[in-house]
What does this fold into?
Amino acid sequence: MKRPIKKAVFPVAGLGTRFLPATKAMPKEMLTVVDRPLIQIVVDEARQAGIEHFIFITGRNKGVIEDHFDKQFELEETLRDRGKSAELSLLEADLPGAGQTSFTRQQRPLGLGHAVWCARDLVGSEPFALLLPDVLVHAEHGCLAQMMETYNDMGGNLVAVEEVPRQHIHRYGIVGVGADHGRAFEITSMVEKPEPEAAPSNLSILGRYILQPEIFGILASQDPGSGGEIQLTDAMIQLLADQPFHGVRFEGQSYDCGDKVGFLTANVAYALSRSDIGPTFRDALREIVSEGDAD
Ligand code: UTP
It folds into this structure.
């Protein structure tokens, strides 16, 4: 019997420098894709996968994330007075229950590995999910839910992976591929941001993980790696020596919303897929693109 995954960690303490000045006073994770903040979209994905406790690693200027996952009595009262029941139900449906969220501060953005380590006491000695909110996966059946199915078969540690073009390999953590089990395969090695010729494959680690709690012990003594930051991949490389790791090829379209073009593309794709605004937006987009072509 695999130990069930009930907790998910969301690191949201980064500086979001690629989105300045938008992120000067507002967290990157509150940027919206159409009308939903990035962090809400990944929390929805985790809830769909059966997660019951949501742990946010925050920092200065991130208080609004905590407010977002709280009731807004004045707003709700006003909506009620005005008979706006659809909006009210939407707010209620989006909110995890009382006691299902925890927030801790990273204090200094020392890297993703350090942010994850900050969750050690809140996670305790159980396996957990980790979702990076600047990576979205647009899928009917969420990426984490797909990973949970693999976890229930195989246990151990899992990372979602996808193919990346050769010229982008140096931006990602890349995995080496061992025995294939269909959707999942054994990971034999991991390299953070390799040159294409040194990369073991073209499969990159995407931003969705299921990890065993032993990762915390490794992170506790992890030295800074690439970019002077404490890297999660370095700790996973150590864990790989002792525990099974599998890569999961998921169904769905991913968007790197930490990057401007990825973020804008996600907005277009999510907007086009919406039944309320999709058709009108498609016409508006067509007009802009054809005007651009005519110039
Ligand atoms: P990123 O590297 O994409 O976020 O980290 P960033 O550092 O905020 O972005 P740029 O490069 O400066 O634009 C992925 C996720 O990990 C969190 C970020 O908030 C983001 O959600 N993170 C990163 C932390 O929580 N702490 C860190 O020290 C670094």
In short: The mean pLDDT is 95. The longest strand covers residues 173-181.
